[in-house]
Amino acid sequence: MAITAPGNLLMTTVERAARWARTRSMFPATFGLACCAIEMMATGAAHYDLARFGMEVFRASPRQADLMIVAGRVSQKMAPVLRQVYDQMADPKWVISMGACASTGGMFNNYALVQGVDQVVPVDIYVPGCPPGPQSLLHGILTLHDKIMAGEIQR
Amino acid sequence: MTDTNRPLVERFEEAIWETSHSQDVVRVPREQWREFAEAAKDAGYEMCVDVTAVDWMRARPERFEVVASLVSMSHRSRLRMVTTAPREDPEVASLAPVWPGVGFGEREVFDMFGIRFEGHPDLTRILMPDDWEGYPLRKDHAVGVVPVQFKRSHQVR
Amino acid sequence: MRDPETLDLWVAGTEEPQFQPTDEGTQEIGEAESGTRLREQMGTAVSDDYVFDDEIADEERTIVNMGPQHPSTHGVLRLQIELEGEVIRRTKPIIGYLHTGMEKTAEQLTFSQGPTNVTRMDYLAPFHCELAYSLAVERLLGIEVPPRAQTIRILMTELNRISSHLVALATNGMDVGALSMMIYGFREREPILAFFEKATGLRMNHNYIRPGGVAADLPPGWKDDVARILEEMPGRLAQYDDLLKDNPIWLSRTKGVGIITADEAIAYCLTGPNLRASGVDWDLRKAFPYSGIEQYEFEVPLGSQGDVYDRYRVKVEEISESLKIVAQAMEAMPKGDWRVDDEKITPPPRGRIDESMEALIHHFKLFTEGFKVPPGETYEAVESPRGELGCYLVSNGEARPYRMHTRAPSFYSLQGLPIAMADSMVADTIATIASMDPVMGDVDR
Fold first, then answer.
1. Looking at residue C52, what is its pLDDT?
2. Is the peptide bond prior to C21 cis by the omega test (within 30 degrees of 0)?
3. % of chain C residues with pLDDT over 70
4. 0.95 cut: is pTM over it?
5. Cβ within 8 Å, pair A77-C73
6. How many CB atoms lie within 10 A of CB C228?
7. In chain B, whose CA is at the least distance from the CA of C408?
């Protein structure tokens, strides 16, 4: 005889429930640096709404944030600050490198920029574009959600 | 020679006046840099919108050229002042006592070229980190190109 | 009472430590890592702080650091504020956190690649950056751009002025607390950015205005898109006025706050809305007209006090004036070429490359080596939403600039910030910074 669960019970694993909670209310930290920051703000605005994913609260304090979207070019002077903000975030934390300059240094292959923010912090998702439109950024964020839900990112 | 510039032409005989693409340019000897600026401000150039420098390496007798762009709102005209600075220990008088707004511009020239401005209230690096060695916009400072895979056409200048 | 020393109890911390630390095996790693060096590596040491003078050390002054990462969405500006209680005595802006080395990169790129570089400088007004650069190159080349290209340039730059002021109003409102303003501003930007994407291919950083004209003609149906923008904007501006203009909270937070007088503004080389809000009638579109803008009728709004409220009002009215210019440009758009007809400068149309050997060779030379510009130097300035945006260009006859310097309006406007903030409250800092509208890409280049 099969054991059937009554209608008001949900069965899942603790892992899956934790992952679901983490992805559905990921708070980004404000780390908008340059042009990509404007597209990030446009993603949070009314037309491409980030609030439908629970992410419209951009927390100013890194202690309260889960996700750092590095939006823009990281200069030599800014790199220690970036690392410090990343260190101040509590686990679990994720990093999206938004735009060409954050991912690889972009078109500015010179003395002033860190050639890719992954020289400073570990990155989970790279979103290409100069600047990536809000749709690309949303695709990156949703890919991050999928990766966390699938268990690929063990944090 | 416009009426605005007439008092300057008469007072400074060693300055060389040119026209570059229908814009007035005056080459001022380095010793008279601040004096000329004060006279220009009295003559009607209320604002100095920009201070910058050019590194000519060995193409000119003096290596650096410091360029200040002036604007006269009352006479609706522009003037560009140019002076030179030598290769060793370049130093030019600061225009910050005349137009306080060039403070940041002169700090940037110091940061990027190493030209010192005597009389500047706070001559420190502004764009690069404080412990950066070298002056990035000099022609003998490397661009800092990081070799990128599959990109054969880069040149380190 | 039993003697505690004879009790057979173990109390933690009273026993002799088992292992005495010795120097055996320790090593000096290079030089001794002094605290300063470690702090520098971790990014917590600063060497450009204020130094306390002896005379003020007795008073109750504290130094507070704001930034470079802070929620006020103006980019990476760092302020060191010397406070006496709640009142600001001195402010020192520290910049350089977004320095990109654009001027050095410009020496590596050809003249037609230049706009891709400068356009990312003031990323809220990319057309203006491209226009300043292109005007400088055209002045050195000695060419005249056809009228259609000039009108397209004015159309695009004035639409860009509208979109940039919308961001300024949005962030200004959000920083002061009117969060709806953020939503309104970005909502209004979407149709304008959609039109830019249709015409140039990108929402921001377009690389559209190039030396010789513009990159491509306006797309078919552009008049409908622009007409729709022109139709909607006045109603939306009325919505903003409903929210902000006579709102007592807005008035008390912005009137009399962050005052810069006209003399201070001129002395500190402020330009643009910051200067005009202080009452000085100086607009480069009227004083040194460029690209045919003298044909259009528009007013230059002025403020009187130089406070945050006046800077806000100047921006709102500049949006209305720019709408007038856009309407006139749309009506007056001449037919013709959208770039100069010189095959040494303008690449041939793609179709011609298959037909003509010369076109192929010109295309090849233009895109590998670039066109050479006669030696000379020039300075061209345009009126960007932030002020006078100029490009000082020196060429020595090569295909790449010898020296390119951009006169960034926000760089010089930031010097007015300590003046505006002196002797005001900390809480007014955010409103003042937001009203001065610095764009850090412009400041640091």
1. 47
2. no
3. 86
4. no
5. no
6. 13
7. B50
